[in-house]
Design a protein that fits this description.
The structure holds two protein chains of two kinds. By secondary structure, chain A is α/β, with parallel strands linked by helices. Chain A is built from eleven helices and 13 strands. The longest helix of chain A has 16 residues. Classes of the chains: A alpha/beta, B mainly alpha.
Chain lengths: ~325, ~350
């Protein structure tokens, strides 16, 4: 990573640590994290649930104190001039339940009133496509609409730096896409955005750079395309055979154009550079061993594959087992 | 450009949320009204008590029955001696007259209506037998508003309501916001925390006004409960009561992270005051041993002050010490709450 002067950084944190006491002893939620987030970029913190994303973002937001380490936000430290700093931040927490009996517009005016300078609530409401719902009570909104309201509440103060903690978790695909469009347009206005997510497609579409975290540590950092390039291949071939147990992935790693082979749920995944070379070779191997192919798909490599490559686990599997 | 005032917007939000919650409105205004009406009817001053007297059947019972028959407040019936005893035991009659020499009265002296019946029946029988009273007497009947049970009750209900809505209206609402992570979301903005707390207390001061009007108004309209004191004094005492109990509400909400916790804490605080602070009967009836506790409770002092001003027309300055005790509770609670309050 090229070095960037401190003045160009929106957030700079060094050796950030946060320990929690739990019944089974101390847990390191954040374990020595160094991050530089540049002004004007959309930066993604990607990792499974429990990776320490929310703890990290809440320390940056000044809502949690770190156990140790140094955090600088917009050139300031928490505890110095907090009000000045808060005036410049927009925050959307994970799962805030806004007052059910206030209307969308009333909620936005309430949040607008906390900032010295900011945007017209009606304008912000328009930008997140909630104008139609201006008079609707928050309790009557759909999940996607509530999430857009949460983003709007983060925007009314016209922030330089926007924190979005899992903005699309639990939303249907259409609502997610709508929110992505909104977030992308915010990035185009030159704001710095820090977003946490456990959806790799979200990070790929929205973020200029991504930090992959696991167990409170940084395990990879770069633009989505840089990270994907580290796998050495652009494509993934996933297939399954009728008698899956007899085929070991190691035996396929030496096929032409195959960079990596691993077992997947119910099949095998190959990372390949050129599918048109790898797939015929694969089919030939299967035929020579009289194995019947029952499924074969190809797709582009995603950040999910990068995570699997680095940790041996899936982002979402972890989510299922931890909830 | 539009100016936005955070305190105004926070207070408006409180007001809107409250008014749009029918249940909150009912418990604050409707419930005390129903309680006042129900208790007012149950304990209204009854017409003159009817006395039920049984006469044990014998050859002389007819004469006694006849002597008693002229009096409208007496309901007389003749039964066999055994039946008479059973009816007395079951409370169907207050007194049994067994004719004879001597004429015997059977009754339980610990039952007030029986003691009364004995005096009344004896009086009637003695006069019928020819007794002359040496002193001439006359009666003037007086039933005056201000000394009835309903008069005692209405200021107590007002005090109880100021306590309940202060604790719930602040304590419950804040913990609910904490559970919903709204408190944390507010802290993530540059919102001034004092604005937030003032909006809570301000909200209580506003919601208190209709409470006062509903309870005192209903008392006056339905039962002619007198309001003898200065309205300003009544308003001021109620306001101070509302503020002090908001302070207690804030204190119970400082750290609770669950609705169940705060509900339990509030009941823990309110229960002794429901029992001891003289809502339904005078706190002076408790034994001396309990009095230091009874007198130290804020609701006791609020109820004393409200009754003194509303029923007796006492001037505000005469209630100084009571108001001071009340405010001490509120003040200490506020200071502790601000110190320990958990925002996120």
């Amino acid at each position: 990573m090229e070095s960037v002067s401190r003045a160009e950084l929106a957030i700079c944190c060094r050796d950030l640590r946060k320990k929690y006491k739990s019944r089974s002893g101390e847990v390191d939620a954040v374990n020595g994290l160094d991050l530089d987030i540049r002004r004007g970029e959309c930066f993604g913190l990607l990792g499974p649930n429990g990776a320490g994303k929310t703890t990290t973002i809440e320390i940056m937001e000044g809502l949690l104190g770190p156990t140790s380490g140094d955090v600088e936000v917009l050139g300031m430290r928490w505890g110095e001039r907090d009000d000045d700093l808060r005036q410049r931040l927009g925050i959307s927490l994970q799962e805030t339940k806004f007052p059910e009996k206030l209307s969308v517009f009333e909620t936005l005016v309430l949040f607008r009133s906390f900032y010295r300078n900011g945007k017209d609530p009606a304008e912000v409401m328009e930008s997140v496509a909630l104008t139609e719902k201006a008079k609707a009570w928050v309790g009557k909104l759909s999940g996607g609409q509530r999430q857009r309201l949460a983003v709007a509440c983060a925007l009314v103060g016209d922030p330089d730096l926007l924190f979005l903690d899992e903005p699309t978790t639990g939303l249907d695909p259409q609502s997610r896409r709508q929110l992505w469009d909104i977030i992308r347009s915010l990035g185009e206005q030159g704001r710095t955005i820090l977003i946490t997510t456990h959806y790799m497609d979200e990070a790929e579409r929205l973020c200029d750079r991504v930090a992959i975290v696991d167990h409170g540590r940084l395990i990879a950092l770069g633009s989505p395309s840089e990270l994907i390039a580290t796998l050495g291949g652009d494509h993934v071939v996933e297939f399954a055979v009728s008698d899956g147990n007899s085929l070991l992935p190691e035996s396929l790693a030496s096929l032409p154009a195959v960079r990596e082979a691993r077992t997947e749920a119910g099949g095998i995944a190959l990372t390949v550079t050129e599918p048109h070379i790898a797939i015929p070779a694969l089919l030939q191997t299967l035929q020579s061993r009289s194995l019947e192919l029952i499924r074969l798909t190809t797709r582009h490599v995603s950040l999910e594959d990068v995570f699997v490559h680095l940790t041996g686990r899936h982002l979402r599997d972890d989510e299922i087992s931890s909830t | 450009m539009t100016r936005y005032h955070p305190l105004k917007e926070l207070s408006l939000a409180r007001l809107r949320e409250f008014l749009r919650e029918p249940e909150a409105v009912f418990w604050t205004y409707g419930f005390p009204l129903i309680l006042a009406i129900g208790l007012g009817i149950a304990f209204r001053n009854r017409p003159v008590e009817t006395i039920y007297v049984d006469v044990a059947q014998s050859d002389r019972s007819a004469q006694i029955m006849e002597s008693l028959a002229h009096y409208t407040d007496l309901v007389v019936a003749a039964h066999t001696p055994d039946e008479c005893r059973i009816r007395l035991r079951l409370g169907k009659s207050s007194l049994v007259v067994v004719p004879g020499d001597p004429c015997t009265y059977l009754y339980d002296p610990s039952r007030p209506e029986s003691a009364l019946a004995r005096q009344r029946v004896d009086d009637v029988l003695q006069r019928a037998a020819g007794r002359r009273d040496p002193i001439r007497t006359a009666e003037e009947l007086v039933t005056e508003p201000g000394a009835r049970y309903i008069d005692f009750l209405v200021p107590g209900l007002l005090g109880m309501n100021l306590m309940g809505s202060g604790l719930w209206g602040v304590g419950f609402v804040i913990v609910d916001m904490r559970v919903r992570r709204l408190l944390k979301r507010f802290v993530a903005t540059p919102m001034r925390r004092t604005d937030f707390l003032w909006s809570m207390i301000g909200g209580r001061m506003v919601f208190m006004l209709p409470e006062l009007a509903v309870i005192l108004g209903a008392g006056w309209l339905l039962f002619r409960v007198p309001i003898r004191g200065n309205l300003f004094s009544i308003l001021l005492i109620s306001l101070l009561g509302a503020i002090s109990f908001s302070g207690l509400g804030l204190l119970v909400a400082t750290r609770a992270e669950r609705i169940e916790t705060v509900s339990g804490l509030m009941n823990l605080i309110m229960l002794p005051m429901w029992l001891l602070s003289g809502i339904f009967f005078s706190p002076d009836r408790f034994p001396d041993m309990l009095q230091p506790l009874v007198q130290a409770l804020p609701l006791t002092q609020l109820n004393y002050a409200l009754r003194a001003v509303i029923l007796e027309g006492a001037p505000l300055h005469s209630q100084g010490i009571r108001i001071l005790i009340l405010l001490a509770w509120g003040g200490v609670s506020f200071v502790c709450a601000l110190r320990w309050f958990r925002w996120n």
